Amino acid sequence: MSNLEVGTPAEVDLPARVGLNGPVFERLDPRPVVLTPRTIAVDGNPAGPGSAAMVQRYLPTRGRRTVGAWCFLDLFGPDDVRGEAGMQIAPHPHSGLQTVTWLLAGDVRHRDSLGSDQIIRPGQLNLMSAGHGIAHAENSPTGHGDQLHGVQLWIALPDADRDASPFFEHHEQLPEWRGDGVRARLLMGSLGEVTSPATALTPLVGAELEVAAGVEAMVQLRPDWEHALLVLSGDWSDGTEQLWSGDMAYLGTGRSELAVHSNAGARLLLLGGEPFDEELVMWWNFVGRSHDEILAARTAWMAGQRFGDVAYEGDRLPAPPIPPVTLRPRGRR
């Protein structure tokens, strides 16, 4: 998914974060972001622009930039897309990151400049590693379902891998961890003795937890990693704090386990990883280390270089103007 926000953000010097060396409970409030207008179809005929596609953006925020190497999190839906075109994201570039697409409802067609053409459905994982540069498009396919609901995440690539050749993976089956009324599906990394087949280039975990109503359970964590929890549906409590659908909290480091209780049942997204200490410049769809690197990526995209071509019926997305400030690398603090 493309970061389609436009405008000229002001530079803000942020204070050092607390809770980097121990457990905390810090709510991460999302901000609504308008992506691209959908097109409403009437009797099979286009009828002009429809409502704007909206997402809730949890990462990055002014308060926190990364959780491990996870550096971007958009939650989209649940949206009723009956009679509409659904997701329509034209070809756009990425560099220096991996994209992770996870659907809760609906289906999305992924096409990229490697020639990949893949429909993704709930319970399946799309992983695209951009490396030096890749382009892709994401669209609801013809005959798509009535609902669209899911998340897209980015993982910042470490310096050793961020200029590598791009690749794409699709995993129809993912391993599961089960215990005490909790089922975890491993999107990325490891949880307990279970490891996802998806290629992780930094030490991390991404897992969807399905929690039965009334369950009180413990999920083992790595205390040297930091973690965060997003409630996709239902409710969660650890006996002290509580989250509802759409709530997210940063949990810090130093936790060897996570208490999981749900009154009505829940679907949770657990993210974590080794704290990512490399300083990053994130702008539009690029993750780099300097202003000049971001500028070079934008220039290449606008010149039709470096990122390749996507088989697509329509124009690709132009890059927004570079802000009239120097983009400075920032750490997780």
TrEMBL record:
Domain Pirin C-terminal as annotated: residue spans: 208-306
Superkingdom, natural source: Bacteria
Domain Pirin N-terminal as annotated: residue spans: 56-155
Pfam families the UniProt entry points to: Pirin, Pirin_C
InterPro entries referenced in this protein's UniProt entry, alphabetically: Pirin, Pirin_C_dom, Pirin_N_dom, RmlC-like_jellyroll, RmlC_Cupin_sf
PANTHER family in the record: PIRIN, PIRIN-RELATED
Family the entry assigns: Belongs to the pirin family.
Name of the protein this chain belongs to: Pirin family protein
Native species: Jatrophihabitans telluris
